[in-house]
């Protein structure tokens, strides 16, 4: 039976084609969608020790289960392992999706830790950024505090290999036809 792909609930790219968050992908069509997006790794957050993903995902995806009680934050070791896993996925050109039952708090903390390392920014910037693009993320003060504690571990020397913002960018569309003109100064404007 050929199942058409279907986007998992609350699926959203955080870093295009590299990192996404979603609620639990419970149907085979969700797994098809994830695979079509070139995602090879699923970080599955559960408040039980059993994986929440359907058994048919085994073999097609690498599934890493993290036990994090609902409403709490990942511990420091889990945050560090996630950032390391993202570095490996980045080197391989693979996509990663972080899924939990609702795709909210704990997944937002993991993603926030990675973005702090990637962008070399403060925790408040990450919290505001994630809440702007995904208002349901990072729900508790404990989760916010975990981002602050993780940021304290980041040394500038550890962050240099994440400095993607300094690399030249390529655009998907041709912008060579755009002409720039110098801005007029107040003295050059004629009000008559």
UniProtKB/TrEMBL annotation:
PROSITE patterns associated with the record: TYR_PHOSPHATASE_2
Keyword Metal-binding part of the UniProt annotation: no
From the UniProt record, which GO molecular function terms apply? Answer: phosphatase activity
- Show the Gene3D superfamilies listed in the entry: Protein tyrosine phosphatase superfamily
**What are the Tyrosine specific protein phosphatases domain coordinates in residue numbering?**
80-145
Q: Which UniProt keywords apply?
A: Hydrolase
Q: Which InterPro entries does the entry link to?
A: Prot-tyrosine_phosphatase-like, PTP, PTP-SAK, Tyr_Pase_dom
Top-rank taxon, per record = Eukaryota
Q: What is this protein called?
A: Tyrosine specific protein phosphatases domain-containing protein
């Amino acid at each position: 039976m050929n199942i058409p792909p279907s986007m998992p609930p609350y699926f959203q790219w955080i870093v295009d084609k590299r990192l996404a968050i979603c609620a639990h992908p419970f149907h085979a069509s969700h797994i098809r969608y994830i695979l079509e997006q070139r995602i090879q790794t699923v970080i599955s957050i559960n408040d039980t020790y059993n994986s929440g993903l359907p058994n048919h995902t085994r073999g097609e995806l690498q599934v890493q289960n993290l036990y994090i009680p609902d409403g709490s934050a990942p511990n420091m070791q889990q945050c560090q392992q996630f950032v390391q896993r993202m570095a490996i996925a980045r080197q391989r050109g693979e996509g990663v999706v972080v899924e939990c039952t609702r795709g909210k708090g704990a997944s937002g903390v993991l993603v926030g830790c990675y973005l702090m390392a990637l962008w070399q920014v403060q925790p408040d910037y990450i919290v505001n950024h994630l809440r702007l693009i995904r208002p349901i993320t990072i729900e508790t003060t404990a989760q916010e505090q975990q981002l602050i504690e993780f940021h304290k571990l980041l040394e500038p020397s550890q962050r240099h290999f994440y400095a993607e913002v300094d690399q030249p960018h390529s655009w998907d569309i041709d912008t060579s036809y755009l002409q720039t003109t110098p801005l007029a100064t107040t003295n050059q404007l004629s009000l008559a």
